[in-house]
Please model this.
Amino acid sequence: MKVGILGGGQLGRMLLQAAANYVVETYVLENDPHCPAAHLCTHFKKGDIRDYDTVYSFGKGLDAITIEIESVNIEALEKLASEGVQVYPSPAAIRIIKNKVTQKEFYRDNEIPTSEFVITENIAALEVHTHLYPAVHKIGEGGYDGKGVQILENQTDYSKGFDALAVLERKVKIKKEISMIVAMNRSGDMVIYPPAEMVVDPVLNLLDYQLSPAILPEKITWKAEAIAMKLVKKLNSPGLFAVELFIDEKDEVLVNETAPRVHNSGHHTIEANYCSQYDMLWRIIMDYPMGNTDPILPSAIVNIVGAEGFAGKAVYAGLEEVLKIDNVFVHLYGKNETKPGRKMGHVTILHKDYQDLTHKANKIKHLLRVIS
Ligand SMILES: Nc1ncnc2c1ncn2[C@@H]1O[C@H](COP(=O)(O)OP(=O)(O)OP(=O)(O)O)[C@@H](O)[C@H]1O
Ligand SMILES: [Mg+2]
Model:
């Protein structure tokens, strides 16, 4: 099979690592020839994943195509799909999710619980919707890693918002943030991974560390599973999806957002679950039986991000100390340049005991620093 991936970041890289176990010829389209995925694919094509002609000519002649980022040219994918190329997920599902405005409308139209919201077209609109404050303002398209998200405590904060098509939503009193990964094959069969729970850094707004399976009352897990599976069913697309959810102070479960692809909240599945999210996506693309999502052991993920005050050629201080710790798996994404907050890698820790996971996660956060 010839399979293309749009985007060449770390998600593409880990997808390619899993592809090496199968008979598949891989193609990557990405502008940067030094990107994390460039050296692991069979064929690298330099080009813009947002450009119609580039994506169309990349996909023509392939059996299947998938994405590792949503900011792709959907019209070209639609054309390819109409000509018989399998697209995972469907272009229609990417279209809904790509823009936070259409994504929220999709939740509302399908009665999928999500925080109350209005759509705003410009900054002036932020003064109007007084009942939603404290609120969160999210740009429709173009935001990533928390950069398209602004917390507005009250109306006087409105100038911090986006002067573009965006979503203004009520700020949820979050008790826990979890993520559920759901996969669906071409016959519509679904599997779901146990929830992962995250602790978020309030300053950088980047994932701090993650535990999986999340520690939740059974009833909340069931509710979250039902919501995540309904959501994927309504998207009506084969592929792999990560559904981010909030559990609020009243134990309500609300969908925050969905990613129609392999996701950072599923990195641990490489070592911690029988079938990783990456392996699962290949099974779906190749129309093989889906794998077992059960955990082998509980796990934690620590993201390795560029330290404040350093930019330039990356140096991994403390790496040897981290590698000495038992049941620790280091993944460096092969990015040459570091800058503050840049995702450079992650570490997965396995242990049956959650206290051990938390202890080691904190230890690794302090030991391992990306400097220059
Ligand atoms: N309605 C909300 N109420 C409270 N907190 C929120 C709300 N929406 C978002 N947040 C917080 O902001 C974070 C980032 O929001 P969101 O996931 O929508 O943005 P993003 O740009 O897609 O980020 P990422 O790429 O990190 O997932 C969330 O993980 C959550 O901690
Ligand atoms: Mg998010």
